[in-house]
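#help-structures
NK: newbie question, is this the right format to request a structure? protein is RNA-directed DNA polymerase
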Amino acid sequence: MNNIPVLTASRLQRWAVELSAYQYDLVYRKANELAHADALSRLPNKSLVEESVCSFSNYYEMPLNSYDIAEHTKRDKVLNKAMELTKRGWTSKNSDEAFKRGWTSKNSDEALKPYFPKRSELSVENDCLFWGNRIVVPYDLRNDILELMHDQHIGVVRMKLLARNEVWWPNIDNDIEGYTKRCEPCQLNQKASVPVPYTPWSKTNKNWKRVHIDFFHYMSNTFLIIVDSHSKFLDIHLMNGTNAKNTIGKLRSTFSYFGLPEELVSDNGPPFNGEEYKKFCKSNGITHRFSPPLHPCSNGLAERAVGTVKSTLKKQLYENFQKKLKREQ
């Protein structure tokens, strides 16, 4: 168990815990010596495969890899010194140690201070500096890392969450906040918060116990949004109409995958007030709850999800428009 990385998939960690109760030896056996190979471990003969496999990827080439980081780390004077001290040992008088090794620049010694409190957690691997499980990014690549993390225009909190799992450098939180403030699409679509009385829904302890639904319109299209109150999972359907029949059809499609919810929360719109919709809920054992009239914030989970989807669409469309202008210029 001690050799398992912290970020290993939960399924593998559970297997490791279960196998730790046994004493066993691992024996390698060649494939041609396996008398009974299961079907899933062997691909069929190529001559029998007729179907084509389609896939897509945002990046057909990796935007950044360990070799790039190692190359830029060699050019970064501060990280070079930090790696040298990590290999040979840090002292309580970092400036004196640096001076003895010929590093007489006061600016360089000052830049090493953020690394000194973390000296016991620093390590070097493949010419890269690590703080725990997080790689220390050289100065020249920090803006590229911020650009990758903000590629989908996520917020400050989500960017910090991603960074805490993968990368680190001094004052990274301030750099993330500054980068999002300089993002033009994010700032143009920023919402001003309006103070309202806070009356929360009861917390759910399992998925699909309470589901919030709502319609929203964007660029002449109507969508139905479905949000699970526990997992915050989003399911969005493009609607041909907002009548009860079409709405029930989309709900059936979602519920066929994830199961029936116990509660369904919606506003007082016409599709949710008809006998057909009430019959649908009753026949499936679903408790239907209305939000108070003229108070859309009471169905806040769905309203928040609508705002998130609209904002993301606007940012992507604006970014595509900017790229188009640059190509035409």
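mod (FA): yep, format's fine, and the tokens are attached above. The beta strands are 122-125, 128-131, 134-136, 167-168, 210-218, 221-228, 234-239, 263-266, 287-290.
NK: thank you!
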